Amino acid sequence: MTNVHDLYGVGGQSPWVDDLKRSYLAPGGIDALIELGVRGLTSNPTILAKSIEAGHDYDEQFADVVSGGTSVDDAYWDLVLHDAAGALALFRPLYDRSSGGDGYVSVEVSPTLAHDTPGTTAAARALSERVAAPNLLVKIPATREGLPAIEEMIAEGRSVNVTLIFSLERYAAVIDAYERGLDRLVAGGGDASSVASVASFFVSRVDTEVDRRLDAIVASDPGSPRAARAAELRGQAAVAQARLAYALFRERFTTGRLAGLVAGGATLQRPLWASTSTKNPAYPDLVYVDSLIGPDTVNTMPPATIDAFADHGVVARTIDADLDGAHAAIAGLAEVGVELADVTEQLEVEGVASFAKSFEELLDGMRQKAATLGVGQ
């Protein structure tokens, strides 16, 4: 037993790995992570791009599919879904043992569709039907255009990982979409207990941008009370907002219509803490793990963060510690002139653009490789 096991057994939190690559399907990959205590897997276009571009693990399959007449765009999905199918199979026993509580693998629709509701809906449906595994979570970004697609997928009885959530306001809208989707599913005679969902709240990136703005205040107004308060607020925004998100989760799923749906068999849409590696070397390496532990949550971590937690992580319920302090930190940002709504809007724009850029650059690289091989389009 490791600290990673204790995250779930003691803290009630499911640790997932934020990575997917071909080598994970071999002995010593996902099976070793599961033995360590990992209970699920997420991926995103940037992770997949790095995996496919690194080394030559995908070259043979890529050459085979494009030489057979498959387009480069379709070949990308063949590569990704091969890895996803392997990961889904390896996590399936855990999914079965936990009665659908964990053992999930997340695969994202094309990030170029983030502002295209019909396109996202069609792509998510096609991905769900093509993979046809009960432990698949189709990742859909929580853009304004993504919200109707999320509702529609839930209404159709498909499991979803809602990604790229940066603000409490957007998180509330995601919960609303989940509730509407469940209502429609139940009204149509569907089984709400068969649908799983997580809401992926991005954490460390919030501190990165907020701290940048706080540093600008300190530099522009040195020695002032405003600058002193701005300095005090460094590194507080991300954890504070995540703790308030958890409070919102508890409130929404224990009262009103959602509480009734859960009582009738629907599953909780668990908050998932994403982007939990520490970006600022001045902060503790596990600040976004140790500070956000609590029941009915998920923390998806890159492998290095999982290893660090196994080595020196501390398991204790921290997610709802000092809510007054969390409110004070968010209020303090407004007092010194940092508009959190502007921060989170910027982060969403940057997040969507970053994933789309990784995706397009990967496809360009694959087209060049196909040309080198003398195959494909």
Describe the model.
- With 377 residues, this protein is of the alpha/beta class.
- The chain has one domain: TIM Barrel (Alpha-Beta Barrel).
- It is 57% helix and 11% strand.
- The protein has 16 helices and eight strands.
- Strands 1-2-3-4-5-6-7-8 form an eight-stranded parallel β-barrel, surrounded by nine helices.
- Helix 8 (168-187) links the parallel strand 5 and strand 6.
- Helix 10 (225-232) packs across helix 15.
- The longest helix has 34 residues, at 340-373.
- The radius of gyration is 21 Å and the shape is globular.
Question: Could you outline the blueprint of secondary structure elements for this entry?
Answer:
Blueprint: H1 3-9, E1 13-18, H2 30-36, E2 40-42, H3 45-53, H4 59-67, H5 72-97, E3 104-108, H6 117-131, E4 136-141, H7 146-155, E5 160-165, H8 168-187, E6 197-202, H9 204-220, H10 225-232, H11 237-254, H12 256-263, E7 269-274, H13 287-290, E8 297-301, H14 303-312, H15 323-336, H16 340-373
Parallel strand pairs: 1-2, 1-8, 2-3, 3-4, 4-5, 5-6, 6-7, 7-8
What would you say about this model in short?
The chain is α/β, with parallel strands linked by helices and 377 residues long. The chain has one domain: Aldolase class I (TIM Barrel).
